[in-house]
Amino acid sequence: MRKIIPVGASAVALSLLLTGCGGSGWDSVELSNDPSQGTAPSVSFETPLKVDEAQTKVLREGDGQEIDPGDNVMLQAALYKGSDASSLGDTYGQGAGQVLTVNDKLKESLPEMYEALTNAKEGEIIAYSSPKTSGKAGDDSTSVEVYQVTKKLMAPLNEKMKTPAKGMPGVSQDDNGTPTIAKPSGAEPKKLKTDVLIEGDGDEVKPTDTVIANYVGVRWADGKVFDSSYQKGTPVSFPLANVIEGWKEGLAGKKVGSRVELVIPTDKAYGSAKALGEKSQYPAGSLVFVVDILGTTPTPEAATRSAQPSPSASAPSASESAKPSPEASASGR
């Protein structure tokens, strides 16, 4: 299985039209068992559950850091059938969570979700149900979605960078701290090179960690950007064990809060154009990345075993095929 660079953060469908309205049976929704690493929480409620308006309920209040506008947070999600409370899937066993940015885009598209998050703390668990899910389980019950705010991430980096080391492509940044990689020059690299442009003071990245990061990648041959989380507006999360070798070796041991430039030779990236073939979606040859490490968290064992390849942040992730929310198409997200 080909190891990859991280995918985008769209796996958890956050089509939550959160309100405070009441509904038939909604007050009965309770948390039966807390979530644990790799395992979703258990919930109980009177069945069949049917709501006439969108509902929310705090099942467990958070006790961590407060969530503020502009924050990046990690979420886990689980979905339960309204007819009999059976599980319809969850993200807990697929990774450490998905990243959501609590920004103006979210405020405009889902103002109730924005309000709910900006009044939450780390650890909070929120239940949600909507009449838009009626009929999804073969009857007129409405499903129950459970979302946990697992972690507040550090803000995107916007600090003074040092000049890249000799032989490394130049890197500049705009007023928001978004980096741009200069077109590489000279012969393609034969060895992996790393350079810490901003030195963080957080925990060191372990090979077994899931890393939360912003990144931009360019081809050595022409300097063209082939993937960037900055352009998408939200960081990504990925188990370090499931990425290309250049990322594994280049990020392990670096500290949270660091900006790292990686020059990756072909044999530690995706491979040559000949090996990949003409129809490959993967960039061939040597690559250059700038990666901002915004956080780490332990990777559930099941996530390492089940990860599937994807060429870039523009492609669907392994967990997207098992996303818990049935309302993705309804909201257009």
Automatic annotation (TrEMBL):
<comment type="similarity">
    <text>Belongs to the FKBP-type PPIase family.</text>
</comment>
<keyword id="KW-0697">Rotamase</keyword>
<dbReference type="Pfam" id="PF00254">
    <property type="entry name" value="FKBP_C"/>
</dbReference>
<protein>
    <recommendedName>
        <fullName>peptidylprolyl isomerase</fullName>
        <ecNumber>5.2.1.8</ecNumber>
    </recommendedName>
</protein>
<keyword id="KW-0413">Isomerase</keyword>
<feature type="region of interest" description="Disordered">
    <location>
        <begin position="161"/>
        <end position="189"/>
    </location>
</feature>
<dbReference type="InterPro" id="IPR046357">
    <property type="entry name" value="PPIase_dom_sf"/>
</dbReference>
<dbReference type="GO" id="GO:0003755">
    <property type="term" value="F:peptidyl-prolyl cis-trans isomerase activity"/>
</dbReference>
<feature type="domain" description="PPIase FKBP-type">
    <location>
        <begin position="208"/>
        <end position="297"/>
    </location>
</feature>
<feature type="compositionally biased region" description="Low complexity">
    <location>
        <begin position="302"/>
        <end position="333"/>
    </location>
</feature>
<dbReference type="InterPro" id="IPR001179">
    <property type="entry name" value="PPIase_FKBP_dom"/>
</dbReference>
<feature type="region of interest" description="Disordered">
    <location>
        <begin position="299"/>
        <end position="333"/>
    </location>
</feature>
